[in-house]
């Protein structure tokens, strides 16, 4: 191979401390369970194999996740929802035992009943029934709980769990492809050691489940940067949603329109996040890196490249706090694998070649076989004046937060 053609991908500002220790949550069973959902299929496997192909696993501490128990799930989710998930596990086991041979005449009535119950708990169109849902949920939640305990135990400065980041699930129901809110469970776990936790959400969809969970507390600050336009899911997360009661000024939403590109996004994030960091002074940070904000995603229409998220991650790491990095959305599987591999290299401060290395899923990256993702010609509907007004509003809100916390 002609190595003279090779280029490298790296961020070009704010150096990262190469002495930072990084852990990486991984197991084969986690990859298998992550592949159960039809909307993302083999995404987790593609991400892991590309990271491995670039040799980045040589620079991380690989940690095998523990499975979450029903009791751990109940730390956030309602007992009725957890019992429902457990009942599906039992049904799955019974189905396996009978080899699907039942011819009970009442099966049609039972099916109608199941449908009603499924609807009650959000199992349906966007969260289709999964065989042995408890096994899936315990893996997703367990991976992020393991990541949280990695930081709590001081095993790493940064921990990566690309299989986590399911931010839409509510206390008592699944929502938006999310069957469990592993992020909420992870933040609750982190708070056993870290009093103040900052949550940052880059997914193109509003992190409604996480915001709802912590809307009333001053101990967790949620910052979500997302598309906010009529008809776009989930339809929440306006600039006026700032928290409730004791949690007032501890939720911050940055609503954007179609087509935001790298330069204004990076500039806005750095300005806003600095104000949030100064006002809230977190002890630990959780970052959801939904790759559906990257150009080319079938469920998103921003015009960002991984470089934008890379610079945002570098900015977060410059604060020198323990950081948990999670996945999330991302429905262009090739672009998501490219994005999260690139972000892994950024976190590790390792330059990697732009040429995709040969590996199990190599052919999916054709015809260019290049790590770089180029922006489209989509119009940016966000004006400079609108973004400027948003920053002014955020400045005012963070000043109010500062005043509230003064002794």
From TrEMBL:
GO molecular function: histone deacetylase activity, hydrolytic mechanism; metal ion binding
Domain Histone deacetylase: 42-346
Catalysed conversion reaction: N(6)-(2E)-butenoyl-L-lysyl-[protein] + H2O = (2E)-2-butenoate + L-lysyl-[protein]; N(6)-acetyl-L-lysyl-[protein] + H2O = L-lysyl-[protein] + acetate; N(6)-acetyl-L-lysyl-[histone] + H2O = L-lysyl-[histone] + acetate
Gene3D superfamilies named among the record's database cross-references: Histone deacetylase domain (3.40.800.20)
Keyword Repressor: yes
Transmembrane segments: none
UniProt EC number: 3.5.1.98
Cofactor(s) recorded in Swiss-Prot or TrEMBL: a divalent metal cation
Location of the active site: 168 (proton acceptor)
Annotated substrate binding sites: 126, 176, 331
Entry-linked SUPFAM superfamilies: Arginase/deacetylase (SSF52768)
GO biological process: heterochromatin formation
Compartments reported by the entry: Chromosome; Cytoplasm; Nucleus
Region (Disordered): 92-119
Keywords attached to this entry: Chromatin regulator, Chromosome, Cytoplasm, Hydrolase, Metal-binding, Nucleus, Repressor, Transcription, Transcription regulation
Chief place of localization: nucleus
Acidic residues bias spans: 105-119
Family, similarity comment: Belongs to the histone deacetylase family. HD Type 1 subfamily.
Name of the molecule in the record: Histone deacetylase
Originating organism: Bemisia tabaci
């Amino acid at each position: 191979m002609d190595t003279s053609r090779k280029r490298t991908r790296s961020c070009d500002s704010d150096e990262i401390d190469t002495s930072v220790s990084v852990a990486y949550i991984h197991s084969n069973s986690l990859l298998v369970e992550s592949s159960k959902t039809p909307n993302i299929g083999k995404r987790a496997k593609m991400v892991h194999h590309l990271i491995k192909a670039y040799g980045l696993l040589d620079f991380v501490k690989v940690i095998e996740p523990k499975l979450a128990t029903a009791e751990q799930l109940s730390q956030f989710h309602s007992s009725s929802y957890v019992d429902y998930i457990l009942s599906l596990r039992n049904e799955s086991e019974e189905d396996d035992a009978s080899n699907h041979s039942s011819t009970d005449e009442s099966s049609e009535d039972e099916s109608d009943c199941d449908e009603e119950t499924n609807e009650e708990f959000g199992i349906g169109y966007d969260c289709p029934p999964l065989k042995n849902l408890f096994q899936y949920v315990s893996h997703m939640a367990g991976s992020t709980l393991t990541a949280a305990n990695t930081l709590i135990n001081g095993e790493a400065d940064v921990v990566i769990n690309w299989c986590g980041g399911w931010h839409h699930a509510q206390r008592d129901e699944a929502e938006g492809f999310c069957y469990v809110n592993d992020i909420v469970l992870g933040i609750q776990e982190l708070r056993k050691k870290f009093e103040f936790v900052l949550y940052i959400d880059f997914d193109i969809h509003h992190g409604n489940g996480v915001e709802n969970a912590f809307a009333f507390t001053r101990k967790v600050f949620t910052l979500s940067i997302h598309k906010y336009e009529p008809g776009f899911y989930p339809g929440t997360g306006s600039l006026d949603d700032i928290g409730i009661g004791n949690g007032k000024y501890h939720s911050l939403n940055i609503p954007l329109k179609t087509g935001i590109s790298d330069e204004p996004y990076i500039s806005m994030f750095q300005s806003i996040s600095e104000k949030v960091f100064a006002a809230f002074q977190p002890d630990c940070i959780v970052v959801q890196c939904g790759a559906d904000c990257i150009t080319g995603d079938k469920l998103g229409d921003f015009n960002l490249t991984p470089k934008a998220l890379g610079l945002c991650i570098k900015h977060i790491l410059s604060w020198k706090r323990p950081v948990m990095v999670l996945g999330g959305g991302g429905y262009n599987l090739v672009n998501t694998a490219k994005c999260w591999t690139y972000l892994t290299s950024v976190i590790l401060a390792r330059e990697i070649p732009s040429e995709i290395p040969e590996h199990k899923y190599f052919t999916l990256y054709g015809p260019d076989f290049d790590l770089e993702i180029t922006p489209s010609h989509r119009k940016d509907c966000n004006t400079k004046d609108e973004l400027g007004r948003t920053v002014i509003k955020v400045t005012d809100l963070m000043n109010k937060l500062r005043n509230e916390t003064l002794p």
